[in-house]
Amino acid sequence: xxxxxxxxxxxxxxxxxxxxxxxxxxxxxxxxxxxxxxxxxxxxxxxxxxxxxxxxxxxxxxxxxxxxxxxxxxxxxxxxxxxxxxxxxxxxxxxxxxxxxxxxxxxxxxxxxxxxxxxxxxxxxxxxxxxxxxxxxxxxxxxxxxxxxxxxxxxxxxxxxxxxxxxxxxxxxxxxxxxxxxxxxxxxxxxxxxxxxxxxxxxxxxxxxxxxxxxxxxxxxxxxxxxxxxxxxxxxxxxxxxxxxxxxxxxxxxxxxxxxxxxxxxxxxxxxxxxxxxxxxxxxxxxxxxxxxxxxxxxxxxxxxxxxxxxxxxxxxxxxxxxxxxxxxxxxxxxxxxxxxxxxxxxxxxxxxxxxxxxxxxxxxxxxxxxxxxxxxxxxxxx
Length: 383
Known about the structure:
Strand content: under 5%
Mean pLDDT: 83
Helix content: 55-70%
Number of strands: 0
Distance between the termini: 86 Å
Shape: elongated
Number of helices: 15
Low-confidence stretches: 1-15, 25-32
Order of helices and strands: HHHHHHHHHHHHHHH
């Protein structure tokens, strides 16, 4: 049998395996290592260099009067920045060449109209940093098709903007939020102005979002159908559990473990689960029988979905607590009570799975409906 001549030879193979494993981990988790720090530093350096370059360009543009070709190129660059939502580039360029605010593209649309059409809220929010006179001038402008800002807000958002929102109902809600926000800043007469096709903004909105309304209705009904089935099943289980209490009753009909604190935990959690499951069923039934008009997607339907999902989460959690309490009552004086801990831990699995699968959706719906929103009117005067 071959023998190793040096003591270090015994460590060579384990060390080699450790190095290989470390390299694989570092490759899979670059953000937590030196490479991640270098990447972040490189991004900051590139941003700083881009800012310096932009400052130099703006300084040169202030010192010279752009000719027709240069002015066209600058305007096209600003339009592309608006479509991408690059606020810093847009603001610095406009401060250098103020005429960029009023210049239109080939369709006579200013930068704020383009921002509305491309759903770039950060650029659109800059509108509130203008004076009232300038804001009125910007919001009253029409494009060459007779569309005002409200007509543009009524058009369907680009697919890349809608894809970032989960669920057709939330996409419809975001479209309504855009329409309502633009409607609040344009002159009242813009609501009834006809474009070149002879349509009002509300008519354009209904036509452009007809398919999205159908998809939103289908999405909400699918969630309501599957969730109401689970809630109805829990109602049946918890109602039966309330009358088949742990340990049974004595000769007088009173529960045997009535004086046990765990019995009160069982009764309370069973009642909470039953009531919340019933509420969840009613909410989802309301969703299934609701009128799916366009304006209902703004707050009414999302609120029903929030209540339904919240009460469903509560009833599942309370059901698991009731199960654990009943198990603890039955096994408290038994020699097999050691199995209580793993069973209670397993009871946490359904609650955890529901939290991981449905809780993010619930949070998104709540923030989208009752959160601060994507629009900011507290913009300081910048132009």
